[in-house]
Amino acid sequence: MEPPPPAPAHLRVERVERRFGDVYALRDVNLSVERGQIAVIIGGSGAGKTTLLKILIGLDRPTRGAVYLDGVDLASLKDRELNEFRKKLGMVFQYSALLDSMNVLDNVAFPLREHRKLKESEVRARVSEKLRALGLPAVENRYPSELSGGMRKRVALARALMLEPEVILYDEPTSGLDPITSRRVDDMILETRDKFGVTSVVISHDMASALHIADCVHLLAEGRIVASGGPREIVHSPHPLVRQFLDSSGIAASRLVRDRP
Q: What CATH code is carried by the domain that includes residue 50?
């Protein structure tokens, strides 16, 4: 008996190009992420990471090419269809993007109140349940300014999970954090994948984080994916841009991948 064919990619980017006038922000970008995987798209400033993130989340459309989620081309959807489909995507913004004037409960409840018709008691119960699942009991009445950087990340993640998305996108999740908090955020991303079964796409410049959490790493440079592979493949890649990025990261890359399970 022949083995069953491989499952189609949960998220697939196919020959995506984004041009602003004569300037190319992205050129012929191809990548795929299987259901439940963690993919890290890594690159330096000006590599095209932000442009690609906006296309993945449906805030921008490619000049050419397609982004498929569960086989549906996001670029082909009309605005109303896209807004509905976007509920399958959760977003954890850089620096968390919590509203300082709202307490934790109201920050996390925001998507539910916008998109679901629920009784307030049900909203509060769901928020408390998600916060407890992420290791944040009894913080509902605190304000973002009263939380540590790692706690703010978890609150932002709870908000992103409230509509039960299939895919979570993280924008520079370790940016501005100290090394210890950064590794805790890495662990949070891994725990979230395992606990909630989500597919994860992480936009980052943090090579240590990428090697710690990724199933697959994609190096983006000058708008192109120049290398893709598992952490060990990336560490041993002869590609000059990969070597340059690893060397400039100042990390013991070989030890990091050796210590992975």
A: 3.40.50.300
pLDDT category at 5 given cuts 50, 70, 90 is low
* Amino acid residing at 109: A
From its phi and psi, is residue 24 left (phi > 0), alpha (psi between -120 and 50) or beta?
Answer: beta
CA–CA dist 104, 100 (Å, integer): 9
261 pLDDT higher than 70 = no
For residue 260, give the nearest of 211, 219, 193, 201 by alpha carbon: 211
Distance CA 234, CA 207 (A): 10
Q: How many domains does the structure of the chain reveal?
A: 1
Contact 65, 227 (CB under 8 A): no
Strands (E), the chain: 11-20, 23-33, 38-42, 64-69, 72-73, 89-92, 167-171, 199-204, 216-221, 224-229
What is the arithmetic mean of pLDDT over 192-204? 94
